[in-house]
Amino acid sequence: MEEVQTRLQKIGLDETTIKNTLKGKNALKSILQTLDLVGVKECDKKIGNLLYEMSQNLTEALDNRRALLAQYIVEGKITNKLQLEGGLEYLRTHTHLEQIPLQDFDKAAGVGIVVTPEQIKTTVTEFLKTKEDLKTIRYTYNFSEYTKQVRTLLPFAEGKLLTQELNQQIEAILGPKTEEDLKAAKTQTKKPQQQQQQQQQQDEEEDDCKFDISKLVARDLATTVNSEQLLNWRKKNFPYEVLTRFPPEPNGYLHIGHAKSINFNFRLAQHYKGVTYLRFDDTNPEKECQEFIDNIKENLRFLGYTPFKTTHASDNFGKLYDYAVQLIQKGKAYCCFLSKEESSKLRNDLKPSPYRDTQPAENIEIFRKMKMGYYKENEVCLRAKIDPTHPNPTLRDPAIFRIRFTPHPHQGDKWCIYPLYDFTHCICDSIEGITHSCCTLEFEVRRDLYYWFLKELDLYRPFVWEFSRLNVSNTVLSKRKLHHLVFNNIVDGWDDPRILTLNGLRRRGYTADSINKFCDLISVTRKGNENFIGMHVLESCIRKDLDIKAPRTMAILEPIVAIIDNVADDFSEELEVPIIPRNPQKGNRKILLTKSIYLDKNDVRTEDHADFWGVAPGKIIGLKQCGPFKVISVTANEVHLERLGKDVKPKGFLHWLSVKEATPCVVRLYDYLFEAYDPNELDDYIKGINPNSKIVCANALMHKDLLNSKPEDKVQFERLGYFNLDFDSKDGKFIWNRTVTLQEKDKIKAIAQVDGKQVQKKDVPQQKKDNLKKEAKKE
């Protein structure tokens, strides 16, 4: 490979071109064949680049003309790209000839023609004399159209010199731009934006949705209607009346918002006795990998959903290529050589690409060469030819195929051009027979583009419906922000229990039933993407689920020894307690009360206080399952108790463990990741991180009955909350993650919403606090 690289360097190719050529097998094979044919080992950079350009533009039909073109380049008859293109075009249109008439070929390739700057100047001057309306329309003229017309007069003129001369002469005729010129240009480009703003204001008065493209521009509803022929095609090929799909891009980990979409698509199909696809919309190999694909499949299994079929958009790349060719043949797509920046500027200025009117035959040839790997990345893309002035930006000639020399996780190195999402998504929906294409509201603006492709290709058209995206308080769900949190080590990976990825929720202890219940509870609406669901709603779902599933036991976070003074040293009393009080069928378990027990330091004080119900000198306390005790004394390291008769009624009961049944463990106490209700409203959302979102109790103790626990086993540590055994638990080390506290106090913990506004807890009127508590109880 080094030898080949050196050979390409000797003909003057730059490093980027060499790198891309080495990636593309066909491109490399073609240039080496040309060099061998004419015996070139080293040459001038200009000749080398022309030989390379010629090699990359040859089709199979023109391969027998390779020697002719190469010889013309080496002998200096073809000296620039324009002459090469002229020669190639002549050969493409004369493939039926066994022998090429060299006189005609020389004329077509401009052999011997040298266009001087003086000729360019004279030709531009004569051309502008024909534009009598130029002084009237002034700077609103179509520069790309002017350039194209001059080019027909001087087909072999150097492009840069031609456009410079054209610009200079027009400025000389019109003079500098006046305020009126600038105002006219501003009006021309801003008018659609002003219409959009006015319409958005009307939309907000009529609906909660932030943006409704159907009111901005009257939708062509005819494009959404299936012909009888298309309906018959679907009926013949798909027996299900309702077919939905969950179509993730395999470029990250799923979160609670994806769970809402999964739940909606699968339940919708089930309700009508239909089925659901899992389809990977894998159109971007640079961000996709097998790890994400496998994880998404596992997440669906975890949630309890089995797809009808698992498909990949990339399996249809061949069909998508053919459909793109159909658009080109209809004059509905073209190859564009503008850079991303140049294209963005023209789109923003509502101006067309100068390549927009390239003939279909030439576009097909360029597109074929894109597929063969003859062009560099970002050198050219295929665009749909719709309307560069459309108020909806998605319809301004969007890109539909681009070049990427990156192996695909599912297709390998079979392709070097990849379709973009908007082109792929609708066609895959159609050929899979999807009846209901459901997505979130931010995609509503793309609905017209969705149907444009299907109409132009005469494909079956699914029904498209958008719903509100899920936002949950005290966290972020943006893929970009989650990525920042993970890769800056602000959280402990994609399965950190503080973030709402499905991996994180599962590791924290959320069950599939609780997540599905949450999705059912919040339902699906079109109220807009700005509404938030309080975290307490999600917490309520897991509490209700674990209340009847999780065995009860006790654990100590910060142990302190307590000695019962009025029992014998060998005292031991066996107590029988219910495993799950709300589910008597689960039976009972036995625990020991002994002379020495452990209490939690959080429940212990050396001095009493009126509002304190825990352990302090002289107080009467209760210990769960074994009655009242009097506190005799308290030191920093030890508590002394006296057991009392059962007729004494303490205010509350504390958790404890016998020293004979306690075994070490680690407990992680998780809280909201962000203190702010909506972190997205902060200038820097990272500053809203809750410093106490994770507290590790490294010296905790658990009951020895838990020694046989396995990862993902769930328990209730009485008074502390529900806990899940972490995947890191191994080699006799037990790590428990707190899933949720026992009470819904967090609902009004730090920041609450009152009448739609975020306020500090201290500013919430007492009546509102009471209402919040009542709502929590209802849930």
Automatic annotation (TrEMBL):
Chain ranges of the Glutamyl/glutaminyl-tRNA synthetase class Ib catalytic domain: 241-547
Protein origin, superkingdom: Eukaryota
One Gene Ontology cellular component: cytosol
Keywords: Aminoacyl-tRNA synthetase, ATP-binding, Ligase, Nucleotide-binding, Protein biosynthesis
GO MF annotation list: ATP binding; glutamine-tRNA ligase activity
Domain Glutaminyl-tRNA synthetase class Ib non-specific RNA-binding residue range list: 2-158, 164-206
PROSITE patterns, sorted: AA_TRNA_LIGASE_I (PS00178)
Domain Glutamyl/glutaminyl-tRNA synthetase class Ib anti-codon binding: 550-637
Location of the region described as Disordered in the Swiss-Prot/TrEMBL record: 183-208, 759-779
Gene Ontology BP term (one): glutaminyl-tRNA aminoacylation
A Pfam family this chain is assigned to: tRNA_synt_1c_R1
Start and end residues of each tRNA synthetases class I (E and Q) anti-codon binding domain: 654-726
Family to which the UniProt record says this protein belongs: Belongs to the class-I aminoacyl-tRNA synthetase family.
Protein's UniProt name: Glutamine--tRNA ligase
Source organism of this protein record: Paramecium primaurelia
Source species taxonomy: Eukaryota, Sar, Alveolata, Ciliophora, Intramacronucleata
